[in-house]
Amino acid sequence: MPPPGWSWESLMQAALTEARKAPACGEVPVGALVVAPDGVILGAAHNRPVALSDPSAHAEILAMRAAGKTLGNYRLEHCVLVVTLEPCFMCTGAIVHARLAGVVYGAADNRAGAVESCFNGLDLPFHNHRVWHMGGVAAPECAALLQKFFLGNR
Fold first, then answer.
1. How many Cβ atoms sit within 10 Å of the Cβ of residue 144?
2. Which residue stretches of 20-88 are H helix?
3. Residues with catalytic roles
């Protein structure tokens, strides 16, 4: 169930707004939000590994960093990450360690998706925290943004 005042689709639209900022910076258009149980957006970001010369500067990581600063805590318990593309393996590890309650993503990533597509990174038996997940929210719009970016860069 989405936080009060939101639907998963409206939150994904907010994540898409973040993602649309990325191409102007030469970044892959992925956007992410961390949302508190009461519906407050605690952190929002788009991909920035090129701009920051940082391989870990994925939208998910940057949104979690911003949320941690907002809360003054590295634990993001009871919060949900909303992201336009299925998280990679690096991001799923950070999601578990941040103790997020859930992940909602848009487009599946058949090349590197580590929630369901290529690997089940949130469901590994040795994790001491379980994160629920749901994919496919506004998937066609999320995928179209990525396809447009990559077609323009080839």
1. 12
2. 49-52, 59-71
3. 60
pTM beyond 0.90: the answer is yes
Interaxial angle between packed helices 8-19 and 139-152, expressed in degrees from 0 to 180 and rounded to the nearest 10: 10
d(CA 70, CA 63): 10
Mean pLDDT, the chain, rounded, equals 96
Burial 82-99 (b: 16+ CB within 10 A, else e): bbbbbbbebbbbbbbebb
At 42-97, the pLDDT tens digits run 999 999 999 999 999 999 999 999 999 999 999 999 999 999 999 999 999 999 99
Residue 43: alpha-carbon gap to chain centroid: 11
Report the largest interatomic distance among the alpha carbons of the chain, rounded to a whole angstrom: 42
